Each structure stands twice: as C-alpha cells, then as structure tokens.
Batch of 2 targets.
Target 1
Amino acid sequence: MRVTVEDGRLVSVEPVPAEGPSPNLATPDGPCLKGLSYVERQHSPSRLLYPLRRSERGGFSRISWDEALAEIAGTLERVREESGPQAVFHYAGSGTKGLLNGAAMDFWRMYGGCTATYGDLCWPAGLEATRLTLGENKHNAPWDLANARLIVMWGKNAAETNLHQMRFVNEAMDAGARLIVIDPRRTETSERAELLIQPKPGTDGFLALAVARLLLENNHIDNRFVENHVLGFEGFAAMTRERSVEEYSAACGVPVPHIEELAGLIGTIKPATICAGFGMQRYTNSGATMRALIALVALTGNIGVPGGGWVYANLLTQVFGGDKDPIAFFPPEKPDGAVRVSVSTARLGRDMMAQRDPPLRFAWVERGNPLAQNPETHKVREAFRALALSVVVDQFITDTALEADIVLPAKSMFEQTDVIGAYWHPYLQLRPKVLNPPGEVRPETEIFRALARMLKLDCAALDQIIPGPGDVEVRAWLERRLAPLGLSLEDFADGPVPAPGAEEVVFADHVFPTPSGKVELLSKEAEDRWGTDSLPRAIFPLESAADGGGGFPLQLLTPNTKNRIHSQFGNLDLIAVYERGPEVQIHPADAAARGLKHGETARVFNRRGEIEVKVRVDAGIRRGCVSVTNGWWGAQGVLVNLLSEGRETDVAHGAAFHDNLVEVKSA
Amino acid sequence: MNGRKAFILDQNKCTGCHACEVACRIENDVPGDRRWRRVRTFNELHVHGVEASHLSLACNHCASAPCIDACPSGAIGRDDAAGVVLIDEKKCIGCRYCAWACPYGAPQFDEDSGVMAKCDFCVERLRSGGRPACVVGCPTGALDWGEMDDGGAEEHLTDAILNGAVSSDAANNDSKERRVPGMALTNARPSIRIARLEKDREAPRQTETPSTPPWREQAKDLPRHVTLAHEWPLFVFTVLMAVLAGLFFGSLEGAPAPNPILFVGAGLCGLLLSTTHLGRKARAWRAPMNARRSWLSREVVFSGAFLALAGLELRSMAGDPADLPSGHFDLSAWLAAACAVAALISADRVYNKAIVRGGGAYHSAELLGTGLLLATVWSGAAILAVLLATIKVALYLYRKRKRAALGLPARPRATAVRLGALLAAGVAAWLGGPRVLVFALVTASEIVDRAEFYDEIEIPTPESLMLDEMASRPQAVRKD
C-alpha cells in the first residue's frame, strides 16, 4: 500500500496499482479496512507516547525514559548477577515482520543470553506438514489461482482472512471454475460456493482420506505423477482402505453423497487448487490432517501446474538467511548455551512458571499480546505476576501491558525504515520512514542501544549488529542485508519487488527438497522428529466431542474476523462500529436445547475458565459447534483464551487452540 | 460528459468487508453513527437456502430525488453540472424530512451541526481527476462508478431496472424474482447500477440440515426514523391543528366560536413548538421555502394562512355576530376553511412515505378525518358525527386485528381508552351533556389514536426491506 502524509499526519492509504514500474499484482484493488484504518491507528489518542510505570496503588503513571531504562538496566544487572542471564525471558510476536525485528535477540545475546520460546501460535503444524510432504513452503503466485478450474477452500474463510484472494477466486469463477468450501461455519467465502461441506471440527483428516479412497476406487489418480514423484503411495493407498467411506463419513459427520461429490470434483476437474486455512491445524491431530489434505493434490497430479496445487503458506520472501519457518520455530538441536529455548509458546504460562535453574525473574515482551492470545490466559497472567519485573513494549495498553511493571511506547511501522516480506504474495517491500515518532516514542533499536550503554555492553560490537538512530544508518544497515541478494534499496523506489527466486508456478520442475526428493506421503521424518505415524493416518483430536465431551459437548472455534488481526485494530473507532461486541454463535437447535434466546447473555465455560458473551443464534454453524472470534480485549469484555488449554499440536509446536470443548448456559 | 454520476455495485464481488465505508469515513471525516455509505447484509443469520448478500449504498443521486421534493427549506438540489444531488448545509433547517423520504438511507443527521449531510459523490476528488474514496477503497473490485445519460440512453441500466430499482417493473414476476434485497421499488430513478448475485453464487448447498434462525429478532435493531419520543412536538402540533380546524368549522355552522386571541395564540404556540424538533431552530423561517414541491412546506404555509384567516374571521364573528347576514357567501370564511382542509391534507401527506403495517390505505388517525369528526361534534351534527366515528372505529379495529395477527404489539390499554372515550362522548351527548365535554372526550380518543399512529408508522429502510424480503422467502418461514 501507499500512504500520503500531510503536515506530519497520515491522511490516506491507497493501493500500489497493478500497472507501473513496480506492479502490484497481488493486492491492486487496495487494502482492507484494517489497512485503511492506519490513518486512525497512527494518530490514535490512545496510543502510548511515554514510558509508564505501574504505581504502588495500581494504575500507571508517566515516567521519563531515564527512569524507565535505569530501572530496567538495574534489574537486568542484578538478575544476571544473582541468577544468570537466562532468568530473563524474551517474548515476541511477529509485528510487521521487518528485518529489524532481529535486533532484540542480538541485544540479548550481547547481554549474555536469555530464555526464549519455541513454537508459534499461528501456523506451524501446517507449515511442517507441507515441509514434510513437499519439502518447502511455497505456492503458486496469488494471481495464478485465477487459472484454477476447481477451488477447494478447505477450512479457509478467505473473504475475511485473505480478502485479496477473493479477487482471483472471482476471476476463476467468471471463467467457469467451481468453488467448494469445507468449513463447520457458513462463512462469507462459502456464500459464493456451490457446496458447503461442514465436517465436525478437527476431523478433516477423515474427510480427506475418504476422498483419497474414492479417488483410488474411481481410478482418478494421476499415475504418471504418482509413479515418478510420490513416495509411499502403496502404503498410503492401503491405509485409506482401513476404513469404509461410511466409517469415514460417521467420523467426520459429512454425509456420503457429499464426500462422493467432493471426490468426484477433485478427481475429474483439472487444474484444482486446495486453499487451506490455519484453523484446522490448531488441533492435536493437525500434522496428520494437513498431510492428508496435501496428499489429495499429489494423487491427482495437481502440483507444478498453473491453477493447481496446495496453497497454504508462501515463504518465498524468507530470503534473508537463517532457518526458514517452521524450522525456525523449533528448539535448536545444539543449544548455544546462551539462549535457552525452553518455553513452549503454546504452554506459555505453564512453561514460564516451570523454568528452573534459573527460574524466570524478568520478562521482556514486544510485538505481542500473549495474555489475550496465548492459550490459558489465567496461567499466563499468573506467570507474569510471579516475575520481579516485566516490561512490555507496545503502541497501546493491551491486556499484556496491563500486567506489566513498565510499559514502553513502541514505534509504528511508519516511523522507522525497514524491509518486509510476506506470507501469501511473493513481494519484498521497503517500508520507508515517513513520520517521526510522536511524543517520546523510540524505535526498539534505540531502546536496546540505550540499555546496552547503561549495561556497559560492547557498544562498538553492538553498532555492527544494531543500526544507529538515523534513517541514513538504518538504510545503510538494510543495504548490507540486501546486498547478498543482489538487491539494493533503490530497487524498491517504485514499490514492491518480487523476492529473488520467486516463481509463478512452484514445483514446476518437480524438484521436492524432501529426503527422498519426492512428495512424501510416507514421511520417516514425521515419525523420527515428532513420533507420529509416518503415514497421515486420521486420528481424532485429544479433546473432541466425538466421545461425548464429558459434560462439555460443544466444540469451541475461535476464528479470526475481518475486523482485526488477532487482538489488533479492534480498539479503533473506524473499526469498532462493525462489531456487535463479543458473542457466541450457536446453532438454533443447540440454542433451543439449552433454552438460550438470541441476544441474551450467556456463560461459555469449561473446567479451565468461563466467559460471558451475548448469544447469537445463527444457522450458519454446524450443530455441536459454537464460535467466538478471538482477539477481544479484557477491556472489551472477553478474553477467549481463558477457555483454551495450553497444548501443542502433534507436530511443530503449534498451539492446539481448537481442542476446546465447552458448554453454554444462560447467565 | 455531464451525465448523472452513478455508483456501480457488483454483489458477486462484494464480501461485505466495510472498506468502502471506512474509506468514506476517512475521506469525509464522518463518525460511525452517521455513515454516508453503509453496507447492509441480507440474511445475516444464515437462513438455509437463502443467499446472503451485501448492499453497499451511499446516496444514489436520483434523477427524481424524493429528498429534493421533501425538503421544505429548498436546501437540497441537483447540481446538473456535476451530475449529483447536494445538500446546502447553509440552508438546511435539520428537520430530517429528507431522511424519511429517502428509501436508501442516504441523508444523515449531524447532531453537532444540526443539519443533514450525505454523500456528495466526492465531487472535489472527481474535479481533480480522482475517483470517489469508497471506489478507491474497495479491495475486491465490487464498487465502481460511472455516468448515466439522461438523454434516453439508459439502455445500460437494464440491470438496475431488473433489479427493482425502478418501479415500472414492479408488477412483473420476473423483476420480483431478480429484486435486490434491500433495494426499494420507487419512481426515484436512482443513479445506481447493481449487478445482482448470479444464480450460481447464491446460497450453497450445505451439509447441515435446515433450521430457522430467529431472523425476525433483527427487527428490534432496525433504525427508526420516526418515533413518538422524538416527534412529540409534531404530534402535539398536528393534533392541535385538527382541533382548531374542528372548532372553526363548527363555529361556521353556528356553534360557539372560540376566542380569536386564544385560538390564534394556541395555533402559534403549536407552530412554535413544532420548530423545537429542528436541528437549526433559528432557520425555521425557511420551512415554507419549497411549497412548490414539499408537503412539509405546504403544511406550514396553509397552517399559517388558516390561523391568520380564521383569526380574522373569528374576530369579526365575535365583534358583531348579528352583522352576519344569513346565507351570505362569506369569502374570507370559506378561504380560511379551505386553508384548514389544505393544511390537514398537507400534514397527512407529510407522512406519505411512511407505512403502517396492517393499516390499509387510510389510517384512522389521519388528520383530515380527525378535523372533520371534531367539526361535526362541535357543530352538533350528531348523525354525521356518529357516521364518521363509526368509520374511524372500523378502520381502527381492522388495523388492530391485522397488526396483532402480524405479531405486532396490540396495546389493549390504548384501545380501551380510545374506544372508552368515544363511547363516553356518545353517552354524554345522548344524555345532553355539555358540548365542551363531548368535544373533549372525542379529542382525547383521537389523541390516543394519533399517538399510536406515531408509534406504528415505519419509514421503509434498506434494513426493513431486507426483512420484508426474507419474510417472502418460503425457506425463512418454514416451521422446523
């Protein structure tokens, strides 16, 4: 996107067009409402402009940077001396994914080390399933979807979470493509589909294997592709026959005719693309589920062709060295002794409190709001409250900031130059500084440099790894990172630049960087690394309504809404009017069985916690499921992760948010 | 090049993302509670087998804009050079009548400035070669704009006509089938082109079996343009005018004439009171400016004329009633009476955009009827009075029954007062009670009906039209 600044104010956000010297083929129609709302977010009166210190009587009061940094540095010195540097805990989300995000870890290494997290809240199980099967996380260019003749949106509500993909869905449909959506909810995306298949949450693997079985029975297999490029076909085929289609149907709750219809479409229409969402890889069986889904595109030879393939994550812009996701999420195989990577993101609170030798005493949180967004809010809160000092760097007083001892004001993305990648389109972008930070806001790089001086760290060495204060220094630092790729900041003068090596159609060469060099339906690594089945055999999630739920019969989904990116943007006036407030979406039959009325307040609860929300009786959800969007703030009435369990996905240390059974009762 | 500016909406591409609204709010610095563009969603609660569609509407800059006709102060006009309809906020008195007249929900009342505001098609942006902010802000390519030629070249508007934007096809079954939920059938000739959902993009077949969500509950959240709580000064004024008209007619027929000073004073107080609901009270003098087109202007003009002429007439009656030669054609008296009738008709026509569910074509609380009934009561024309009262009661009871059948509030206590007061009036008249008592009882009964009228009237909005559309879908009214 392209912004206009007048008199020190951001006044408009518009798209970079599809035509011109640096064409934007992915999002030429413009940003979504969140992108537009940066006009408010940047200048919001609730933005943090000064350091704050929790006062004795509760609440926060303004302090100077000198006071804040002196206390932080003093505590860091004392903690390092008494307990060692690993008593310091560093937690970070993704922020705007700029290269300068790395500054924090560089600082902690100079400090002597710290304790850090492994895993990721977002998408690791799907990434790992893709990596295990195809060898790499990449997909065809976004606009290539227009070439598809069959689009299966599997667990993905692109209209809300990947709005710009809808343009290409529409283009494909205008050219005659068929659209099928698989989702327990009737979503905005499913509105344009001819068929909405609504499986029981967490059972997509059963559905996929049923389809695979039918593809085999109907001889809808691309035998040439399978023979040359697929490992483990025989074993996989045999596995699919372990259950009858009727048994799969009973397991996933999708009637046989719908399974047959889906299998018929996938088997006969080419090219076909499966666009997978992130929600269904937030279960304890996600790795197996996602691998089973990918198998369908492999069996039908929909790989390496225009309009075909597996669209999950595109990491073609991860070109700046280091481990790519999801490997980057895993604890290092050889710990370096300085950074202890020992806290699971999924079990954040529990693991923070479980650290010994040394236990955690200090926490530094940036670019994240773990209290609202990580599972088990009550445990995360408890863990933060047990610390001697916690520091949160943020633009707003989030729920996590409310728990902090010191809150430092964070820069916005318009206040420091950086280079950013993406996870759907293949463009690298320069995000130039266009505004000075307001109030006393300092970029994180400056915070770390100031702390380094107070801690008397080796500042000459620091200057090598963290750029100095001026835009000139930041740009020089970025140039050094771009140079190995044959790029320079000048290349970005007109807009986005395709990442080096970006492809329109991936795997066209049929080179799969897996151990066997083939698409691995049979993955030894899955077994060795994760202890899971080497074949994607379908299993139920750990916490599943399949066995009755033990008094909590409703499966709680906590999807994203178009109005927020997780817990961000919901605090803006421009956005807030589009929310009716926190509510639980429940099927009319489930509501009637509980005597729940539309609009009344109800308790959604399980053994872990309870929230109170308005009831929305809505036929657009499968019976037996309820849904509360994630990302509400405590101040807005709901912290939805009070209900979730700190539990990892079967592979890749993701968070199994959706292994979550609840009951709903009138409040 | 100076055709009418028109928005083009493709419902197949619109996902209801609200980016157009946000872009508009940023461009025009409009807060969320008075949006110049608003996205309405049909079937939000996902009735099985019924499509969910979005209708993003701003001002349609209609060729026959009902807001222009409605505006009493002449503040709304067509800028032919720009091809748009604009509100002159310096002339607007903040009566909100344009909002009643517009079935698309375009004019918005600005509490801060006390005047109406609406989409101006970003004329400034257009002048500098740009596009409207909402069109730029649409991330799916669903919203665009173009120009319409008034010179008979509306061929390209076939879609809009089919989609129910024009009334000529209203009776046509095909057009009904293709109607856009939320789009009013009017003769406003809105400058909008809507590509309706293609058949293959309507509701998906789905795994979950049908059930009926409580979509009628959404009626509670419908925006209401007219409420008794807000419109009470108009309620008082209109009832007062009917009472004064009744008294005046009665006195022409020989009943006791009211004191002219009290009569005119009461009328002026009513007029003054009616200005209190204006956003800009100091501009109330502009209200008669659009008498050529606006029923509200006409109501003000005829009410004023009636009060003035009737006052003079009553004064001459009070001066020397014996001077009045019997059978003499009194031009000024007839002129005053004509103004009274015109004022009451105009006041009734002010509400011509409103509907009363279950109410039929004529509402028992319409002012002309009330004025005539009160005239017969005051003049002591018993047979006529009974006849009129019977008709009114019949209309009243018919409506009440219909509304109860539609699940609308029955308000039995109001009914009891309405009928009880009328009955008491009849008994009082029959027993030879004082004329003032009978008149007061009938007036009380009429007041109840009029208050109910304000409670019952609805101005159709895209939101209410969507619910009406839903009610017409067999899937939505199916019993589980």
Target 2
Amino acid sequence: MKLSYNWLNEFVDLSGVTPKDLADLLTMKTCEVEGFEEFMPHFNTILVAHIDELSKHPDADKLKICKVNVGSEVIQIVTGAENVEQGKKFPVARVGVTLPGKGTMQKAKLRGVESFGMLCSGSELGITTLDYAPAKIDGLMPLPDDWKTGAPLADYLGASDVILDIDNKSITHRPDLWCHFGFAREIAALLNLPLRSNPEAAEFKTVKAAGLPKIEIEKESALTYCGAEITGFKVQPSPLARQLRLLSIGQKSINNIVDISNYVLFEIGQPNHAFDRDKIGNLIRVGYSTENEKIALLDGSEHVLPKKAVLIRDGEKPVALAGVMGGAGTETTDKTTKLFLESATFPRFEIRWVVAKTGIRSDSSQRFEKAQNPGKARAAIYRFAQLLEKENPGISLSEISEVSPIDFDKTEAITVTNTFIDQKLGAIANRPASNADILRRLNFQVEEKGDTLVVTPPGYRKWYDITIAEDLVEEIGRFIGYKEIAIEPSLVACETPRAKNALRTLEHDLRSISAARLQLNEVLSYAFHSEADVKADEFFCKAGEALRMQNALNSDLDYLRISPLPGLLRAVRGNYREETNTRLFEIEKLFLPPTDAKLARDEVYFFAGAVTSEKDSAEALRDIAATIAEVLSACGLLRHDQVFENAGHGIFHPGRSGSAGTKDKKIFRFGEVHPRLLGTYGIKDRVYYFDAKLSALTDLKAEVPAYRAPFSHPAVDFDLTLVMPQRGEFATLRDVAGVLQPLVRRDLDKTVLVAFDHVATFTGGNLKENEKAVSVRATWRNPTRTLASDEIKKLQDGLIGKMQKAGFNLR
Amino acid sequence: MAAADLVKDIEALEKQAVTAVDSAVTADALQQITQDFTGKKGALTGVMKQLGSLTPEERGLVGKAANEFKAKLEALLAAKEATLAEAKFASLAETEFVDLSVTPPEFAAIQTGAVHSGHIHPITQTQKKLEEIFTSMGFSIVDGPQVEDDYHNFGALNFTDDHPARDMQDTFYTVTKHLLRTHTSSVQIRALEKMKPPLRIIAPGRVFRYEEVDASHEHTFYQMEGMIIDRKVSVGNLLHLMQTLLTEVFGKQVDVRLRPGYFPFVEPGFELDMKCLVCNGAGCPVCKHSGWVEVLPCGLVHPNVLKNAGLDPEQWQGAAFGLGLNRLVMMQHSIEDIRHFMAGKLDFLRQF
C-alpha cells in the first residue's frame, strides 16, 4: 500500500520527522516499509514563467529565442516549441533543475545561441495522465494567466511528496492501518503528538430527507448500512491537486464524484459507493445471492455468482457485489444530478469467501477482507460531503439512514496483569511509561485495579485485532521497542534427557561415508514426478498407488514420488556428458501408501545412488557392490554376514541385477539400469544404481554385534580356480563349499569353514567361449589349535572333490 | 521419362526397401539402408535427378510419391530399430551377464584417483550444523510428515478457516484433500501431541509452496522449526536463543533485533533481523543499505496453539521460530540463484 507523506502530515505534524525517520519508526514498531520514493520532486523547482519577448533564431527556422521572466530575473531560453507565445505563461525548468527521466538542465548553446533552461510540456512534467487538457497538448503546457510569475508549480498543483511503500502482508492483522488517517493516528501515538484533525469524526449539515430508499438487511449480511442523498453538485474533473494526490498513490482520476469516493477510502479506509439516485428505486436490500445469480459490474465484467454471496439489490435487481464492486448501469455518469451514497460495512468472512470464490478483487474488498470498523461508516458520508462542498459550494446532504443488525459499539474488555505483561516481555531497562499509560497513548481505555488492568480497545482495534491479553503484550512491547528488552537465557528445566533421533543420525552418517569414503555427491531432487516416472519403477509400490496432486504446477509434476530412480536419473542426465564419473546419491523421502490411517502417506526415507563410470561394466558393478558393502558394514552388518546375490528387478539390465543384505533380508537392490529405461530418460551411457530404505539400515544398527574373543591360532587359506559356465554364479560355489561359520565358538575343537570369498574371474586363454574361471579363497580354522599339514591337505582335497562332484573342475 | 514411369520406379524402390529392412539384423545394416535409398548417392536421388524434363504438375506428382516413400521408409526403419533393440534386450541376460553374487572387495582397494572426492549438499551440511548446535543446547530433533492435513498445517496453528494461505494459489493439495506442508511449523503440533512439556525441539525438513520457480522462488525448499515450551518463556529468552544460534552459525558475535511481524501462531510475532555481516551495519548493497538483514520469523507461541495441543496456556508458555535453510545458505555463500540447490549440477555441489 502506498502512503503519501504530505497526506499523513495533514493529520499529524511531521515537521522534523523525515520520510526516512518515518520509515524507520514504522519498521521497528508497526509494520514493514519496503521503501520510499519522491513524487514529482520537480514541482518545487519548476517555476511559472512569463514570455516577455520572442524572436526568431538567426540560424534556425524552427527555433525561437525567448526572454523569459522567472520572477527574480529575465533569462534567455531557446525553444523549438511551436506553441510558445509572447505574453503567455509556461512552466520553466532552469539550469540546475532535474526533470524526471531527463536529467539535470545544463546551460546549452543551440546553433550558437545560449539557452539557460527549458520551457516544459505536460509530458516533460510527467502529468499527461491527469484529466487536464493543457497537460495533454503536444507542445508546451500553457499555464493560466492568473498564476503568479516566478511561483513554483507546487503552489498550484500541490507540493512535491514522498510516497512510502508499505508491505501489505505486514498489516493484514491491522484493519485500522489500511488508510492514511489510520497510519497518522498510529504515528501520533508512537511519537506522542496530537492529531491535527480527525476525519472519522467529520460532520456535515444535513437536510430532512424526502425520498430516501428504505434499507433492509437480511440476517447479518451487513454489519451496518448507511445511505444518504446528495444534490446540488456538478459532475466534472477533480481539481488538479486532488488528481495529483490520487496519482501519487497510484490512482487514476475519473471525475470528482468517483475521485472523492476513492479519496475517502484511502483517507479513512471506508469503502463507499455513489449510485445515481435516479437509476435506483426506493428499496435497497442487502442479502444473499441465489445459485447462479448473474451480475454485471461497473468494470464491464459479468459474473455468475455462487449461492450466498452478499449482494446489494435495488428491489429484486442486484446493483452491487457487496464490499467488492458496484454494478453496471447504476453508477454516476456526467449527467448525474443526485447521488445515493452508500457507506456500509460487511463481515470479513463474507468478503473473504466471495473473493476466494469469484476471484474479483478491489480496493474495497482488500479492506473488508481485513475487517473494517462499522463505527466509521457514517463519517465517510460526512467526509464525502465536506470534500465535495469545497469545490462545489452549496451542495445539500440528506439525513443519513442507517440500519445495523448488530450493536457494533459493544466492546469486550480484556483483563491482564502487569506481572503477566512484564514476565512475557522480559527485563526492560528503559521504560518510557507504565503499561497502562502506554495503552492509553494507543487510545485504549484502561482501568487500573492494583496489578490488574481492565483494558478496552478503541473501536478501530477490536475487530479481530486486539482480543486477548497476549495482544496487549505485543502492543506494549512494540511501543517500548524490542531493543529495550534484555537478552536472557531461559531457565533450563531439569527434564529427561532429550530423545535421540536414530534415523537422523544415520542419515548424517551415510552422508559422511558417501562423500568422504565413497566419492559420492549428494543431490536433492523434487518430490514431484510425472506419470511416466511413477510407472518407470513400481518396486516400492504400484504406480496406481502413487498420490496425485490436485493442483500440480504442470503435468510433469503430477504425482508424489514412489521411487528415487527418476530423480537420480535426471541428475545423471544433467551431468554425465561433462563428467566421466558421475557419482551421485540422495537421501530423502518416498511417499508410499499409508500404513497408519491417521497419515496421508507412509513417508519412507531412502538412500539411493546412481553412478556412471569410465570402467567396464563388470568393474563398475563391482564398485557398486563394494560401495554397498561399505555402507552395510558402517550400519553394523559385518562383511561376513553380508549376502550378495543375483536377483531380478524390473529396472535393471536382466543380466546385471542383484540384491544385498543379510541371509534373511534383502536390503539393497543394485545393478545396471536397463538400457530401455535409460533411453526414456535420454541417457546414452550405462548407469549403475542402488537403493535401500533407511529403516532397513537402522534396523541393522539396532542389533548388538555378537562377540567372541580373538582366536589364538591361525586360520588357513586355500586359493583355487574353478571353471564354470559363463552364466554360472559364485553363490553356487559358496553353497557347494558348505556352511560358513565365521563366529565359531572359541572353545570348539572342530575345524570349520569360516570364509569363502571371491578373488577374481577370468575369461579367454584356454577357456571355452562360454566358460569362465573363478578364483576363490576358502578359509578354515580350528579355534583350539593350529592345523597340521595333513589336515590341511585333507580339507583342500575335500573341497576340490565337492567342487568336481558339483561339476566344477580345477583349471 | 514420363512422370508415371518415375512414380513406378519409386514404387519399385519401396518394395526393395521393405525387403531390405526385413532382412536387416543390425543397427549398422539399417544405417546402410538409409544411405542406399535416401542418402545423397541413394537410389531415390537417382530417380529425382530425372525430374528436369517434367512439367511443374508432373514434378509435383513425383515429388509427392518421393515424400511418401521417404516417410514410409523412416517409419519402417524406426520400427525395425525398436524391434532390433528389443531383441537385443531380450538376450541381454545371456550375452551381458555379470555375476553380482561375488564377494565385493573393500572400496578403498579399488578406488582410483581419476574420480573426484564426494561432497555433501550445502543444505544438509547446514542442517547438520544447526542440529549439532541445538542438540548441544538440549533440543531434540523431531520429524513430521511432508504430506500433511489441514489441521496440523493451518487449523491448529490458529489460521482462521478463511485465511488466504489456504488458497490453491499458495498451497499444494493432493486429490485426497491433504496438503504439502507449507512450513515446518506443522511439526509443533505433532511434537506437542507426543511429547510432554517442558520441551525443546527442532524440526528441520522439506516444505512446499505453490510457486513457479525462478531465481528467487522455489516450490520446494528447506526450513528448520524450533520451539521451546516451559513454565515461563519471555521475549528476552527468545532473543537469547536467536542470538546464540546466529553467533554459532556465523562463528562470530552477531547482533540481532526484533521488529513486529504477524503470523497467526505466535503472539507477539516478530521478524528477526541480524546486523549485516558484510558492512557491520553501515549499509551496503547486501542489506539494501539498511544495515540489517531479515533472517527469520519468530514469536511467543499463541495461547490458541497451546490449547489446540492440549496444554493449558495459564500453565505453559512457549517461543518458536522458523529458519529458512536455503536463505541461510544463500546468505552464507552469497549464492545468487535458489535454483542451484535442486538442479543437481556437480559443478555447484563440489564447491561445498
């Protein structure tokens, strides 16, 4: 919202308070000021000039040399304007004067003749939008003969101003601040200054009303409705000063009636509407719309309304969307001679509802949405008449007819104690006045009973604004200034130790391991997926179970993700052309079907990674497996308990798809992403991928690893290389080797196989084309003794025998 | 040559092409077919070279036939390419098998110097740092759902039923009438439902606003909610908490100030500013010449929020704040564009 400094100054004396001071004061005590800028700063420096003499330029046909009287002296100006005329008056910008968008005037030489400034057009003054013919002339702007030579334009157009820009969001809770007078009242209270005048207490002589329409209000569709007739005026352009005042806060001038209506709105925040009295009948009814009722508004738009929108009706016919906009056909025109002026107040919730439903907004609805005080509705009519009278002496205002279904003067008092206020704020070193006096300065009525204060807010603060004791704490706090409050640590209660968040700890551990040890980079991807995305991977739930958005920003963001894969593939696509080794991971949430009826989704944290590699696929996949092994170890699953196996998952290459976990539970899936899937994501490289639910990893951590004392006798390794078909699996060899007992008891006098590991795989050489050689290492131990060489031989032969029996020969 | 003859030639080409495509078994073969028929020296070009002697109408006739042939050939090739790819995919299990059941080596043993070291996302780095600061002050870390209900995100936080924040223009809704939480403040209520006061919690996490993405707007970003509930909590206590937080985050003494700010779930409510670290309050472009930088909204917990969570406001008081992590990281590193966080570019991530 824009605030005119000059306008504020009409109500409170701001001499000595610069616009910067004002902005700082409001920022610290009231609301957010986004900035301030000058309005028509040149009005103070551009003067009324009289053309004393006019002569032709000796060297240019189109130029004229003027002797210009600027009051204090006569200066020479060269102009190209055709409408310059001796004996007439024009605005002059002398050397040193700055014009908007034109820079500062310099002494110039035009074809050899010196010129000490510029005669100005309306466009150069920046006022062509005004409803004022001379300003629109394509040439110099002629000034009236009776304007005093040498006087600044400000004397006739209003002074230069400074406009403050208030952040609307910061005053949504302060209905009283949606106008100049409201701010002036606030500033006066904060600075302890008197108000110069109070337009909310305006009065005007009325005459007995003869034919005022009867007013009816259905239920509480309006809090109050005031109406009066005005006659004896002429519809015409507003005086320039009013036009400029409205322009300064961004309002376009229409005619004197509309302009005054707006002026009152921006002055006291009371929306009002001037009907042409002759176009409405004798019954004004405020009530609710029926389903699909139609209304045409004065901005030319037509609307089909939902049921229960508040309307103003002329008898049966809707003539205004209450609190939002007047209807077409009943508004004032050039021919209007008699007004019916409406000043009403509508409930906040009605206006919020209708604005949300219809999307129609206006300066009026913006104010009613915050709630306005019905106590000022009557004043708006008097103020309207006062302003109209000034330019149109002799107007006549009828008595005001007011109907109110509620007693809006009734105000609930709030009881609060000084102890409560002081405790809530904290220690204050510099207190300007007692709590009660501060509230009084803010126009609250305060009754003091010892420590207790019984506080009644002024009418303009009681609507949704000041309702509870905490609101008074804020009033006092901001009035004193929060900088006066001592910074004090809170007294810490001796409470139970804080709850640990195991999941969060694991998250951060995984991040550290991934980045510091596994050369992975963390990315964050959107939770929103397209239909193709949710269909791409149905591992965690079916695509049909993904939750759909009602108002997605676009159709690619229609669903909440059910797999980490699409996000990571997009991140790979964004990098892999520039990076031979794109190594990414992500930890965030999937949105799976709910398991708890009270929650919308089962939100599951995942840990997932996607990698491209310059290595060949076998090596790259070995890297992924090594990555997973490292993570599982870090999560508490020791390597000898980790089980890696081939397992088909739809997203993977059918020959390169696996799982890893314990012997009972698959925790990770990993492999090479299927080339068909990569194609749909526009990736022309191989991508290796893994993912797991974080909860599966925290479960590992919860287990206390079993302990056995260190062995005192050495284990025995035996490496052998076996030939198996290309498609054969290491897991088969491990199964043939027998049961592994890595945690064999220390007192057991028995030789057991404690490990069986893969060492390397070879192809080629003397192997057949569909064969490969797999080197493995078997490890035995007897916890109680060192094995003798014949025992070792027996174990080795036994293993070879088992392998041969199963069809795997030594290489 | 008459036009009709040329059209016949093209029809003949088409028959040859169909046969050729049918019998192709590799992608290279398909490439060769394209060259043979429609390439620069292809058969079709040969036919078209004879157009010279024809009338414009006749040329049109032949041209049309040529275009139809080209389109048909392209469709045939594309279909065949897809078939070949599928055939290749079908045999992948046999032709490209890699045994994933082998014991993985230690990662350190296979690590190569050719790969860059890894990096943690700046947002989660900052999140971790904040969590460490607050846990050292006795706060618990709590978590809440990102898909929320209206009650926890708005209603319980004292937003009126007709509050504009509920608008579809500001908030994402699901078809089940749930919403994506617009702030981590929703966790306040969730925590109070589960935990007994006195308590001190923080809740970092992802939040969503219905917003088109540009350099300063994101629909997905990170916040951290903080709340203390105790018998007595004052504005002075809140100030202390905020000053401690920022001093720890920035590693040097930071001055803070409170200004009035309005949020339905606190009363009084504040905007917290900190003295600009770039100019130390003298005024510079970073602080828009005000000497202060807006950091976060905070306030004393509104009694209605306490009531909604089943606490007696006569007995318990609270303070709460909501810190935007993206903003904080942007401030710390002078990051100019919020989109970097979700773009996943390594060139960005490696700088942290």
